[in-house]
Specification:
The complex is a heterodimer. By secondary structure, chain A is mainly α. Chain A has two domains: 260 residues, no CATH class; 274 residues, no CATH class. Helices cover 73% and strands 5% of the residues of chain A. Chain A contains 25 helices and five strands. The radius of gyration of chain A is 27 Å and the shape is globular. The model of chain A has no long low-confidence stretch (mean pLDDT 90). By secondary structure, chain B is mostly helical. Chain B contains eleven helices and one strand; from the N terminus they run ααβααααααααα. The relative contact order of chain B is 0.17. Classes of the chains: A mainly alpha, B mainly alpha. Chains A and B meet through helix 16, helix 17, helix 18, helix 21 and strand 3 of A and strand 1, helix 3, helix 4, helix 5 and helix 9 of B. Strand 3 of chain A pairs parallel with strand 1 of chain B.
Chain lengths: 661, 305
């Protein structure tokens, strides 16, 4: 039934091309809503009644494969469903601004790719592996490539999209190689066969092969460099769905690999360490660069990398905990990681939607052009503040719940004496991430929405249409639910966690429930205390004299808005610490020291990864060397060329004599 | 119930007296008579009765922020026990919650500072955010050391297990208390990280963020500052108490006098750091916390050092 829905959705995209421009979005909405309702129904059924098998078939390449839904698929199906509905609702307003500019085919292509992306993501999480998995994976890449290319007339968009396509295919190669390795040994390329492979052959080569392949999609260090390029280039709703759910399919693959480690304590331990280490590096790297960016969407892209790091830290804690024989630590880590997958998909979609609202009014994502937007776009400002508090993992919202679970897993590791040093490493990393993410997002929110306008475009901004606001309200409601009633949200998550690495979910739920109930009480108490304080202050101030006066400028009488702190200056302190990690791309010329009356200057600086330039430079250097060698043959003398031709003929002669040719 | 009440009352006493002790210590060391012991409380009462001036640049966030700042500090305050007393609120994992509640307070005040559009306050906000981020690992490592020896992850459970830990561990706990004391200095922006006594524009971190606040808002921010100080002071005193088997009747004066006099002496005897050295200073504390944790771990594993 569900598969038929997906098939129908995939076939009905032809309709998008037929209907008039304005109606295309509605066709896409209906198709995606159909798929989403099917997915939600299916995952609810799976969580209630157990695993379902939908279809099975034989492919000529990898043999028998099937399509089935278990706990992990159910979790991913639900987040894909929620995010895709919000995305397609949001897209109407966003794409509406481009209807005049682009041809009908262009718009159709965009919506076709959007529907295909949703369908392919759903297929990725229900197929059992092998050919059908790789097919949906590739379809997902191509659909997202077309989506990134929406504003194809901009050169940086084309570059970013191409960069994305190349990187994804390098990852794809690793996946194909991994599946072929698997098929060679076990005669099946399903994820279920990985377990068998781990028993009969050396497990780490296969694990690393697939880990790199999935890590490319997830944005693990050092394979993250496509994210900060692709997200600023893509339209905001596309960034939202890509960052919110598509990169999570990489995590999905890693979960499937972890699921295959059955009772092999040593392997579980080793893989746990690899994943934990990858998480720590990715998280810290991502968050430091997030804090240094001055472009709204680049900052959000780096923050996605950081959140993938947090998820991996959770997974690593889970694996090491289970290997050490502690159900509580294992379940804490796994539930924390899975809940963080859900949480991140919620607040990151919201943040990218807010970025889209800003971009569609300001026509730029450069933070230093903004300021004071809260007065012009109040609803966006409130919703963005909400998402900011959630992503900073602050109580009483949802980000805190998942990080708390991971922390508790690690603190239990410390207090029970299991793998203390690794647990401490995780604690240090997570606390550093938690601290710097506050810096990054107060910078983002403060520079964009607060203060005075830094350019005259701000004054022309108005609030966006209500449909876009409604699209943002969907994740907002879920953020509140998970944040304030975590004891209810944890139940399905614990069931899924049990499906990944085993352990006892009912025991874990019994241990978590009192803690999360107290947490939810504290959340309500916190809100109550703040509200009470505000009411008291408000009532007291009714009788007092409340004046309005300019911001205190310390006696300086002619301040102007350009003197405000900018994004660049806000993160200057961190830049001094993180200088060795980055490379600045400078565009234009700075004001010279000798210029007493400076003329007009154009100066743009982008803080890029060293990894980015290292990888880039590596290729360039290799090509350079190869070309240098070839150039040595091109001497320009005719006698040399005749010698080459003679040598060629001679080689051919020798080869024919030995019967090679 | 009565114990919880006693704990809250004692915590309040600690919160109200630390500033007085610091002021009195400084006065004595400088050979002055000094201001009244509770002068800061009178000042706050005075501010609570005043009106306010708001800049037209600011939004509603600026008016809500002090309430969030104080609210988060109050809730965090309710989790802290004095030695083996019982706090009002407690659950498994609250050590993380307290750290993140203080994070919420920080976000509120940083955003409020950016809301004014003033470059001074932006500067203060940037520094507060950076130092807060850098000090977070030190805090978590300190808490992890406590969890390592006491085996629990809620404040009430950690500090209720007063036990004779042997002279080696006592040294670790004393060092830990020192780390928490420095964290308190960094979080409240005191010498040597910053000097709150200078003229406001020269005070570069915490006080500069509140430049545009007046009246009730400023009083709220000051009260929240006392509560935060009390939290750090009591945790530091508790770390000592755990090792030396002190109960609340010793721990309370230790929290007030120990931290108050130490900070008073530091403020009298040394100058403020050059601001660019603060990052190094904070990272040194992080390194020290790591060292304390490592030493603690080796002792815990019975590896003789």
């Amino acid at each position: 039934m569900y598969l038929l829905t997906l098939l129908a959705a995939a076939l009905a995209i032809a309709l998008i091309f037929i209907v008039p421009k304005r109606a295309k979005v509605w066709v896409a909405t209906v198709l995606i809503a159909m798929a989403a309702i099917g997915a939600i129904a299916l995952s609810a059924k799976t969580l209630l009644c157990g695993d379902l098998e939908l279809a099975s078939f034989t492919t000529s390449l990898f043999g028998k494969e099937h399509i089935s839904v278990d706990g992990i698929s159910a979790l991913f199906l639900s987040i894909i469903a929620i995010a895709s509905v919000a995305t397609v609702l949001y897209s109407r307003g966003y794409v509406g601004g481009y209807l005049e500019r682009y041809s009908s085919t262009h718009i159709s292509l965009h919506y076709t790719a959007l529907v295909l992306l949703v369908v392919s993501m759903m297929l990725v999480v229900v197929t059992s592996g092998g050919f059908s998995f790789l097919f949906s994976w590739e379809l997902m890449t191509i659909a997202s490539f077309i989506l990134i290319l929406f504003e194809a007339e901009r050169q940086e968009v084309r570059r970013a999209a191409l960069n994305y396509l190349v990187m994804m295919h390098i990852g794809f190669m690793f996946l194909v190689a991994g599946f072929v390795m698997l098929y060679n040994v076990t005669d099946s390329a399903n994820f279920a066969a990985v377990e068998c492979y781990f028993k009969v052959a050396a497990p780490l080569p296969l694990f690393m092969m697939l880990f790199i392949g999935f890590g490319m999609k997830a944005g693990l260090f050092p394979m993250h460099i496509w994210l900060p390029e692709a997200h600023p280039a893509a339209p905001s709703h596309v960034s939202a769905i890509m960052s919110g759910v598509m990169i999570k399919t990489g995590v999905y693959g890693i979960l499937r690999l972890m699921q295959a480690i059955d009772n092999n304590i040593d392997l579980l331990y080793n893989i746990g360490l690899i994943v934990l280490l990858a998480g720590i590096i990715t998280g810290i790297w991502g968050v430091i660069f997030a804090a240094m960016q001055n472009d709204v969407k680049r900052l959000l892209a780096y923050s996605s990398i950081e959140n993938i790091g947090v998820i991996l830290i959770g997974l690593g804690v889970a694996a090491v905990g289970h290997a050490a024989g502690s159900n509580l630590i294992g379940m804490c880590g796994m539930c924390g990681a899975l809940l963080h997958i859900v949480n991140h998909s919620l607040f990151k979609t919201m943040l990218f939607f807010s970025a889209g609202n800003i971009y569609s009014k300001m026509h730029t994502t450069a933070m230093n052009q903004m300021g004071g937007l809260a007065k012009h776009m109040p609803v966006t400002a409130i919703l963005m503040l909400f998402a900011t508090v959630a992503i900073c993992a602050l109580p009483p919202l949802n980000g805190f719940v998942s990080e708390l679970l991971i922390y508790i897993g690690m603190f239990n590791g410390v207090s029970d004496g299991h793998e203390v040093l690794y647990a401490v490493g995780g604690i240090i990393a997570l606390s550093l991430i938690g601290g710097v993410v506050v810096l990054a997002f107060t910078k983002l929110y403060g520079i964009v929405f607060l203060g005075s306008p830094r350019s005259h475009h701000v004054a022309e901004c108005t609030e966006v249409d209500s449909q876009r606001i409604a699209a943002m309200a969907i994740p907002a409601a879920l953020i509140l639910f998970v944040g304030l009633l975590p004891q209810l949200a944890i139940r399905p998550i614990a069931l899924v966690a049990e499906a990944v690495t085993g352990g006892d979910s009912s025991l874990a739920v019994a241990q978590f429930t009192p803690m999360l109930t107290s947490l939810s009480c504290v959340g309500f108490i916190l809100i109550l205390v703040i509200a009470l304080l505000f009411v008291m202050k408000y009532r007291a101030q009714l009788k007092r004299k409340i004046e309005s006066g300019p911001t205190w400028g310390c006696g300086f009488t002619a301040p102007n808005t350009r003197m405000q702190y900018t994004g660049e200056s806000f993160s200057e302190g961190l830049e001094n610490v993180g200088r060795p990690l980055m490379k600045d791309m400078v565009d234009g010329r700075s004001v010279d020291k000798g210029e007493i009356f400076p003329s007009e200057h154009n100066y743009k600086v982008v803080h890029k990864d060293k990894v980015d330039s290292l990888l880039g430079q590596l290729w360039v250097k290799m090509m350079h060397n190869i070309n240098g060698f070839v150039m040595r043959l091109r001497t320009g003398r005719v006698n040399n060329y005749i010698t080459f031709a003679l040598a060629f003929l001679f080689v051919v002669l020798i080869l024919t004599m030995f019967g090679v040719l | 119930m009565l114990i919880k009440l006693l704990n809250t009352l004692l915590m309040l006493v600690v919160a109200l007296s630390i500033t007085g002790v610091i002021n009195r210590t400084r006065a004595v060391l400088a050979g002055r008579k000094g201001i009244r012991f509770f002068q800061h409380v009178y000042n706050a009462r005075l501010m609570l009765r005043k009106g306010a001036v708001y800049s037209p640049t600011t939004t509603a966030l600026f008016r809500i922020a002090p309430c969030v700042y104080l609210g988060a500090a109050i809730v965090a305050f309710l989790f802290i026990p004095i030695a083996d007393l019982e706090p009002v609120l407690s659950f498994h994992g609250d050590i993380v919650l307290v750290a993140y509640l203080l994070g919420l307070a920080r976000v509120a005040i940083v955003l409020a500072a950016l809301d004014t559009g003033s470059s001074f306050e932006g500067m203060g906000a940037a520094r507060e955010a950076l130092y807060g981020a850098l000090v977070e690992p030190a805090l978590m490592m300190g808490l992890a050391t406590l969890a390592l020896f006491c085996g629990y992850s809620s404040f009430a459970e950690i500090f209720s297990t007063a036990q004779e830990l042997g002279p080696n561990v006592t040294i670790v706990m004393l060092l830990l208390a020192y780390v928490f004391l420095i964290i308190m200095i960094i979080e409240s922006g005191r010498v040597p990280v910053d000097d709150p006594r200078t003229h406001l524009e020269l005070t570069m971190i915490h006080e500069v963020m509140c430049l545009d606040y007046s009246g009730i808002d400023l009083a709220m921010i000051n009260i929240a500052g006392w509560l935060k100080n009390a939290i750090w002071a009591v945790i530091a005193a508790n770390a000592v108490s755990v090792a030396l088997c002190f109960h609340w009747e010793f721990a309370t004066p230790l929290a007030i006098l120990g931290t108050g006099i130490t900070i008073g002496c530091i403020e009298s005897l040394r100058a403020r750091n050059k601001l660019s050295h603060n990052t190094t200073y904070i990272l040194t504390i992080v390194a020290m916390a790591a060292l304390v944790l490592l030493t603690g771990f080796l002792l815990y594993q019975n590896i003789d050092i």
